Amino acid sequence: MDFTTFQEITYTRPDFEARKEELRRYTQDLKNAGSYDELKAIFLKHDEDSRHFNTMFDVAYIRNSIDTNDAFYEAEMNAFHEQEGHLAILAQDAAKALLDSPFLTKFEKDFGSLVVQNLRVSLKLASPAIVEDIAKEAALCQEFSRTTAGCTTDFHGESCNFYGLLKHMQSTDRAEREEAFLAWSGLYESVSGKLDDIYDQLVELRSSMAAKLGFDSYVSMVYASMGHYDYTPEDVAVFRRQILEDVTPICQRLYDEQAKKLGLSRLEWYDEALASPEGNAVPIGSRDELIAKAQKMYHELSAESGVFFDFMVEHQLFDLDSKPGKQTGGYCAFLSEPRAPFIFANFNGTSADVDVLTHEAGHAFESYLSSRINPLASQAFSTSELCEVHSMSMEFFAYPWMESFFGEKADLYRYDHLTSALKVLPYMCCVDEFQHRVFAERPDAAGRRQIWRDLERKYMPWRSYTGSDFLEGGGFWMQKPHIFINPFYYIDYALAQMGAFEFYQKMCEDKEKAWADYYRLCQSGGSRSYFNTLDYAGLSNPFHEGTVKKIMDFLETKLF
Fold first, then answer.
1. Phi, psi at residue 230, to the nearest 5°?
2. What single DSSP character describes residue 13?
3. Boundary (domain end) residue, out of 102, 122, 142
4. Considering the entire predicted model, what is its pTM?
5. DSSP per residue, 462-514
6. Domain named Peptidase M3A/M3B catalytic: which ranges (predicted)?
7. What pLDDT is attached to residue 79?
8. Distances (CA, A) of 376 to 27, 115, 248, 400
9. pLDDT digit string (tens) for 323-375?
10. 20 to 30 A from 494, CA-CA: which of 155, 251, 262, 551?
C-alpha cells in the first residue's frame, strides 16, 4: 500500500462475503497442496493478501477511538465485530488443514514452533456457539469506551476530561490537587452504575464463552488466547508474592520520603503524583516541538531509530491531543499492509507526554523493525509480556536526552520516572489478583469493591482516599480500562518491567552493548515464545524465586 499520511488513507469496508470465500478457498488449497513448496507459497500468499483486510480493521479502530462519537466508524466497528466470530471459524478450518498437512514438520522448521503452537491453540478458541457472544463482547467494550470518553466537568472555567484533571492533580497547590481529585472521583462515581452494569455483563459473558469452548474457566481461556503458554496462574501468583515481599516495602519507604519532602504527615492519593514541592518536571514546548525534539533524540540514539522516527513523522502516524469524545489511554497499533506503526495518546501537559514519545515509540520501533525482518504479519509484535519490554526499555534509553525535554528539571524527571516505574508494580498486582478473584468468586458490585479495597490495603498500604467515599469504598478499580477491554493483560506490564529494569542496568554498565542487545531483541519480533526470547535476550525469568529481589538490589543503589 502506497500512502502519504495516515489521514489520507482511504478506508473502504471489506467485502465480508468475499473474505469468507477467500478463507474457504485457502483451506481447500492447503488440503490440495502436492508439495511443501506449494503449501508454503499458498500460506505466504494468504498472509500477504490478508494484510489489506487487517489494515482496514485497524484504520477503522483507530479512527473510532480518536472520536467515539463518529457514527460512521462506530458502525464500521460494529460490522467487523458482527463478522469476527464467523471469520474465526473459517480461519480455524484453515489452521486444521495446516496442522493435518503431511508437510507440517517442514513448515514448523521454516516458521518456528510458536506459529504452530498458535495454530493448535486457535482450534480451541472459535466455535459457532460463541459467534454472537464475540460481537456482544466487543459492543460492551465500545460502550465502556464511549461512556468514559464522554465524561467531562467544568474545572476552574475549563472543560476537563479525566486526563485534563490529572494535570491539576500535579499542582503544587494542595487545595487544587484535592479539588481536582474530588472532581475526578466524582466523574467516575457519576458513571459507576453504568460501568458496574457493563462489567457484570462482561464477566457473565466471558465466563459463558469459556464454558461453551470447553475451558474450565475464563482464566484458562484468556491465558490461551493471549499466548501465555509458558506459565500458569499459579506462577503469576508466585510473581505477585515476590512483588509484595520485595517491592512493596521499598515503595513504602519511597512514599515516606516523599511525604517528608512535601511536608506532609501522610500522603493522600492526590499527593502521590507530586514528586517535588517545587513542582513536577513539565515538558518544555508544544506538541510539534516535542515531536521535533524526539526526532532529534532518535537520530542521535542510533541510525536505525532515526530512520524509524523520520518514517513516523513523514507519514503523520500520531494522534496525540486529548479532546472531547476521544477514547482514554494510549496505544500503538500496527497497519500491516504499509508496515506502519501508529501512536495514539492523550497529551495533557505533564511528563506523561514525553513518556508517550518513548514508551509507545518503543512499541512502534519494534514493530517497524521486526515487520521488515520477519515474514509474517503476525510476527510484527512479540508476545504481550515482551512487547512491554520494548516500550519500557526505550523509556530508559531516552534518559540522556531528557535535558532537551525538561531543561534543569531533567534529573527530577529521571528520578520521578524511575520511582514511578517501581511504585506502579504493586498496583499492577492489585489489578491482576482482582481479576482472578472476580472470575473465581463472581461477586456482585459491592463485593467487587470490597475485594479491590482489601487488595489495595495488601499491596499498597499507604493508599488513602480521604474525601471520596466512592474511592475509599473500593471504586478505584473502574479507572483501569484494561479490566474491561484487555482482561488479564495488565500483569504483563509488571513482568516486562523486570526486563526493562535489567536493560537499564545494562545501560548503566555499557550503553553501546545494551543498545545492541535491545536492537537484537526488537528484531526477534514474534518469532519466539516468551521464555525462549528471555533466554535469547539474556534476560532473567521473573517467575524464578529471587529474580525480583536481585533487580531490587540494583535499583536501591540508584534510589537511596
1. -85, -5
2. -
3. 122
4. 0.93
5. T---TT-HHHHTT-GGGG-HHHHHSTT-THHHHHHHHHHHHHHHHHHH-HHHH
6. 168-550
7. 96
8. 18, 10, 41, 35
9. 889 998 899 999 999 999 999 999 989 999 999 999 999 999 999 999 999 99
10. 262
